[in-house]
Amino acid sequence: MKKVLFTICLSVLVIAGLAKDGFHVKGTIRNNTDSLVFFCYYFGSGTTVQKIDSAKLTPGTATIDMKADRKITSGIYMLLFADKSPQVEMIVENGKEIDFDFDKADFTNSMKFVNDENNTRFYDDKKFIASLNPRITELGKKLEGGKKKDTTYVNEQYEIINQSIFKYRDDLIAKDPASILSVLYTAMKEPVMPKNITAMKEGRTKDSLKFVYYKNNYWNNWNFGDDRLIYAPLLEAKLTNYFKLVPSIPDSFNVEADRIMKQVTCNTDMYKFSFWWMTRYAGVSKVMGMDESYVYMIEKYVMGRDYCGHLDSATKAAYVTDAQKIGPNTMGKKGRNIEMPDDKEVPQTLWNTCTKGDFTVLAFYDPTCHHCEKEVPSMDSMLNIVEKEEGIKIMRFAVENADEDVKWHKFIEDKKLHNHWVHVHNPSRIGNYRADYNVYSNPIFYLLDKDAIIIGKRIDHSNIGGLIKHLNDEKKKGK
Q1: Do the bridges between strand 97-103 and strand 23-32 make them parallel or antiparallel, or are there none, so unpaired?
Q2: What pLDDT is stored for residue 148 in this prediction?
Q3: What does the pLDDT read at residue 204?
Q4: According to CATH, what is the number of the domain 339-476?
């Protein structure tokens, strides 16, 4: 069903180059109940729109006339009403006049354009999709029972609907291959699997071969050199679906990101959106270690030789600050040493502590933090269990991330945090551990090996056991 909805929800983009720059959008809106409408355009996604003009409306039958002589990028633009009613999309080409008439109560079926074949076909497509909605709703209800035979039947019917949409759009392309609509429909096409694909050597199954073929040919119909495709809600959906095919590990992500960045021309809208989306994808990922890819994107495309001026100074500075803050504590790097006195005022160091165990959990916490009161003892209990099960020694190097020494001592005693724990604090305010380990909340845990290499971060008691067991197994195998 998701595949069907993805196909149906994508809007259409059209483009043409004309000698005269600007736009002229005019028309009549019948049964209007709003007082203001904005003229907007998409930018890469269906949720990001930019306002370009606005017009006041009268009740009943309203007319609008908006124009400008500045050059625009052709694409899908829209009328966005102040009352938040559904946006009215239309294809706007640089230098071309748009003249429309529609009833606000049912704009899809009532929409008419004057001497505008592209927008007429655009709305014919919308009407065709709308005609399929009752059948899609009916099929969705059959899935509610959860029966296997119903699921098989529904999936088959969804595929029939998909194919009817593909055929409808292929027919339009065939009728006018050079039309602006063909640019969109071509960009939306997915790889067509060869019928004769068979399992080959090395134990590959048909399904794995289909996956490889699909992934390798995913971008065949997308033109990374055409900025006009950004002015439609397409690229974010394409990127989102593509990176579902890519393992969320830095080595895989970085290769795919570089492959895409090499296909776009720097400082174009396509370049700016592609960089922004992939950098953000890595930056907000919940997968451990993906912050390494976030730093990679910044170091290469902002701080490195590949930077080509696609950012304003403030945005560039923000990225650089992030990379400098996160970079020192990414996975695979040696953690910065921490030298502080312990709870008996004896000097201790993180690096020396790491040499005393098979693994070391580096913890930052505030003894007055309610979450810390539960999480730190829970972490200790889990580590005790893993130590017994795996026959290993796990050190705990805990930094008091607050100025609460009395409560800190009481916390240690009350929670019985003694076995393999090294508790340190920072009474002299020396060092820069907060910046070194990006510590701006409590509690925060890192996992380090004997050489103080960071092998886990942003972990808690619920996942630390599985991670250490996995790493210990890999260690035993000699990996």
Answers
A1: parallel
A2: 66
A3: 66
A4: 3.40.30.10
Cis peptide before 377 (omega within 30 of 0): no
- Sheet (strand 23-32) strand order: 60-68, 23-32, 97-103, 112-113
CA nearest to 339, candidates 330, 352, 327, 348: 348
**Residue in 397, 412, 411 with CA at minimum distance from that of residue 446:** 397
Do 81 and 73 meet the contact criterion of CB atoms below 8 Å apart?
A: no
How many whole angstroms separate alpha carbon 22 and alpha carbon 3? 37
pTM for the complete prediction? 0.82
Gap between the Cα atoms of 192 and 163, Å rounded: 11
User: Of the candidates 91, 67, 63, 93, which has an alpha carbon nearest to the alpha carbon of residue 77?
Assistant: 91
What token pair was written down for 23?
Answer: 């736009």
Contact 56, 22 (CB under 8 A): no
Answer for the pair 455, 449: CB distance below 8 angstroms, yes or no. yes
Over the chain (479 residues), what is each successive 10-residue block's mean pLDDT? 38 43 95 94 89 95 95 93 91 94 94 93 92 89 73 88 90 82 87 72 68 92 92 94 95 96 94 97 92 96 94 96 90 94 95 96 95 96 96 96 92 94 91 89 95 93 94 82
> b/e for 377-398, b at 16 or more Cβ within 10 A?
bebbebbeebbeebebebbbbb
CA distances for 471 relative to 116, 149, 249, 452, 455, angstroms: 63, 42, 16, 15, 9
Domain ranges of the chain: 2-154, 339-476
Q: What is the Cα–Cα distance from 184 to 245, expressed in whole angstroms?
A: 23
Rounded to 5°, angle at Cα 233 from 296 and 285: 30
